[in-house]
Structure formats: C-alpha cells, structure tokens
Amino acid sequence: MSGEKLSLFASIPVNKRPKTDNEAVFKEMVTLITNKQISTGKLVDFSQLVKDMGVCGIVIGNNRIALKADQVKVMNGNDEAAMFQGGKLNANLIDADKIEVKHLWAKSEDGTNKVGYFGNYEIDACKVNNSNAPLFVGADTAAKSPFYVTNNGHMVSTSATLGCFSLDKMSLRYISGYEDEEPGFALYNNYMLFRGYSRTFNPDTHKWKSERKRTVWLGEYKTTYQIPALLSNLLIDDSFSVNGDTLKSGIRISVTGCDDSQQYDNPTYNLSNAVYGNFAIYAEHGMYGGLRPMTRKINRSMELTDMDCFVIVTKAVTLTLPAKPQRGQYYKFLQAGDNFVIKSPSNNMYWKGADGVSSFPSGTYNQTTELIYDGSSWHVNWFREAAI
C-alpha cells in the first residue's frame, strides 16, 4: 500500500454520517481497506460487501468491523497474542473472568484424537453405565476413560495418588517414601496387610536404612517355604524391641457384657444345653497349635493375676488367689522347692475331705496342683510322683 493512498485515507472522514435528511437513501457509511485500495462510501448490504471484497480485507461500519483473511494475527507488542486460521482461534493467552461453553474438548498433540471433555453431559460421549459424566479424561468417551466424574458427584479412577496412598485397579497402598520399604498398608480384593519398620540413619551415607519388624496380614495367606504349606486367614509377625516396663501382645481381647449366670443357676437353661458366656475366642472347629499358657517362676509371696496360669514355686511362700476371679480361671502349680500355701480371700476351696476352706498346702517336692474356678468355688486337684 503506497504512501499516497495512506494520505488519501487520512483525508476521508471515516464512519461519518453524510449531511442529508433522506433516511431512506442513507444506510451505513463504511470504509473498505484491502491490499489494493482504500475507499469510503454509503453501503446498503454490509454482508455482501464482505463477500465481494476478495480474500483479504477490512470493512469498518458504524458499529461493526469485519476482518477477512486466511490468517488474522493479533499482536501484543512484538509478540503474537492470537491468530485466526482455518476458521479457528489459536490464542497464546486468554484472560477472562467468565467463559460459558456447552462442550469443551481436549485433543492430542497432533489434534487427531479427543482425550478429554468438560461440559454439557447430555451428549452420548458422556453416558457411562446408568449415569452421565460431564467430566472425563483419557479417552473420547466417559465409558472408555480411566477417570470420570458423574453429574451426581461420583468419581471413578483406575489409578490415583491421594496423599501418601497409591490406587490402581488391583490395590490401595500406603507409600512411605523410603526406597527400601514395601507399602506400609495394602488392600487387595482377598487380603489386607500392615507392615511396620524400624529405621536407622547412617551418618556416613546420610541415608536411612529400614528393617521390617511387623507384619499383620488379614485374609488369605499361604506360606510355601515349609512342608506342608500353611494357609491362614490371619498372620501377625512382630519383632519390634521394647524397653522398660512394657508388655507385648499379638492380639489383645476383652469381651464382656453377657450374663452367663442363668446357664449355671437356672435349671431351665441347664436342661436346654444352651451355652452362655463371654468368649474371647469361640472355636467351633480346629485345634490349637503351639499352646503356651502364661508361665512364670515365683520365689516370694504375692497375689496372682488373671493372666497367670502355670506357676513354678521355688520357695516357701504364700500365693493368694484373685479376690474376683473369672469363671473358668485355671491355675497349675509345680512345687520346685520348699512347701508353700495357696490362699483364697474366701472360704471357697473344695477337695476331697475339705468343704469350703480358705487355703491349700502343697507339701511334696515336684507336686502338681490344679485349681479351676466355676463361678463361685475353687476346685482343687493334685498329684505327686509315685513312690518307687
């Protein structure tokens, strides 16, 4: 475009209404700019002028502007801010307080595949099972996507990271972040497990070293390193070291609330053979492998606890039974030293020849004495080595 035409353009009033009172004659004052001409005049059909002006140009009307080209660029200084090409807007920067759309699709880098969607959920691509998903990522439909959210707020994801938890199609796992540790928690379709680790810091390498000390496995568990293989539904393996006045247990159980007195005191219940009680373990079938009751040696007078069972007595002492024993409480004593006495706070000890007394003497070395509590009385039985 020559400087002469620019001068001509500058001298012509643009968008200025001519001085006439004939409104029927006047339609619109426009300016047409192309790469070949600049002209201003009255216009009857704005749209027709845009069509007729060629492949590239600008039409400026009273309150509208039409730009026509195969490529239209918008510059922000020396930088391209946006470009219109092939009927589409390619913008490097969009800053808007509000955008309202019905369908917003994400496409692959080459533009050939749809890989996500957000918008109106009434289209077929949003249908999944019996719901509609206005948001999905990873495919061209919600049904094929690994992640989608339904219009009811239900989220479905085949994999995810939620804080320290990792989710995939097979499991939910807790990842501690230490490279030499397996997941501290894992949930699968047929089992759940917990792992505990002790960690020591190496000042030379500036790294932590982890050692697994606890495994709790709930669900199907099979050991194949032994013959026969062991199949179990609960595994607890704990080797953490403890210091001080600390007791360790694999399982701690306390069951109360059942009044079992009717089973023993009411003849009606006895006749029906019904079973009542507070059972810490109710084993309908199976044996106990590796039964090792609480055992300890005693060389001083003391009151026994509910947790005691096997007691090896090495001195001449007095052992007092609990004041409030539980039904089924069982003690077994072995005399491994001088004579000793077993004492009850009440006159409720019975054996052949004794009816309601408060103490029992163990008077022979290597004598074994058993006591069992039936809910009101202690029943005593003992035996000694046969004389040769």
Structure description:
The protein has 4 helices and 32 strands. With 388 residues, the protein is mainly β. It folds into 4 domains: 3-68, no CATH class; 103-158, no CATH class; 176-237, no CATH class; 295-383, Jelly Rolls. Strands 15-16-17-18-19-20-21 form a 7-stranded antiparallel β-sheet, with no helix packed on it. A hairpin with a 2-residue loop joins strand 5 and strand 6 (79-85). It is rod-shaped, with a radius of gyration of 45 Å. It starts with a helix and ends in a 5-residue tail after the last strand. The model is unreliable at 1-26 (pLDDT under 50).
Rounded radius of gyration (Å): 45 Å
Describe the global form: rod-shaped
Main beta sheet strand tally, sense and closure? 7 strands, antiparallel
Q: Ends: how far apart?
A: 135 Å
Structure class = mainly beta
> Within the largest sheet, what's the order of strands?
15-16-17-18-19-20-21
